[in-house]
Amino acid sequence: MSSPCDPQYAPAGDVGAALMMIDSRLKAMYGDGAETDPVQRQLTEQFTASLAPKEADDLVDGACTLIYMFMRWLRMAYEDHDKDVIEYVVPGLVASLRMMPKSIRPEVIPTMAGLVVAAGTGLSPSLWRKQYGDWTKDEMNSLEATALLLAEHINRLTDNRDFAARMIAEAMSRATEG
């Protein structure tokens, strides 16, 4: 039986823009120059501030698509080692989000955990979230942080700082070819 939260019914959103933002944050985290530069940070902030409502919605859907794709990859990687992705990803994600009280409000952490569990069980994060109403402003930082933390988890597992971003870019390239 098909679920109304099946990814086939979800909008992909602007995966390219979402990936650009996550990749930029990863490079800043790793000290690769991006975003540590105040000019780059200002350009990113201007970009997000300039988005029309439809473009902002597409960016949110794109971030949800990234979360789904990251969790799908993680699920396959953990299953290859007879491990449960939820058990190995969600506790660390929640702990990391809790360590960011200035940018992540505590009341949105359960939503992000649910979003990741939904993605880890094969459901669309955006459709899963939609059943509880519209996104809130407080959830935007946590959504970006969730996608960033999942990408970083993948990069750590593969011992390759570019693996998560490259995996998505290659998937997008294959999708446009065929």
Please name the defining characteristics of this protein.
mainly alpha
Description:
The protein is mainly α. It has one domain (11-177). Helices cover 70% and strands 0% of the residues. It is built from eight helices and no strands. Helix 1 (15-30) runs antiparallel to helix 8. The radius of gyration is 16 Å and the shape is globular. The chain starts with 14 loop residues before the first helix and ends with a helix. The relative contact order is 0.17. The model has no long low-confidence stretch (mean pLDDT 90).
Q: What order do the helices and strands come in, and which of them pair?
A:
Blueprint: H1 15-30, H2 38-49, H3 53-79, H4 85-98, H5 109-120, H6 125-130, H7 137-158, H8 163-177
Helix pairs in contact: 1-3, 1-7, 1-8, 3-4, 3-5, 3-7, 4-5, 4-7, 5-7
What is this structure, in a nutshell?
The chain has about 180 residues and is mainly alpha-helical. It contains eight helices and no strands.
How far do the termini sit from each other? Answer: 28 Å
Overall strand count? 0
The proportion of residues in beta strands is under 5%
Sketch the major β-sheet: none
Order of helices and strands: HHHHHHHH
Q: Give the overall shape.
A: globular
Radius of gyration: 16 Å
Number of alpha- plus pi-helical segments:
8
Mean pLDDT: 90
Helix content: 55-70%
How many domain regions? 1
Q: Output the structural class.
A: mainly alpha
pLDDT under 50 segments (min length 5)? none
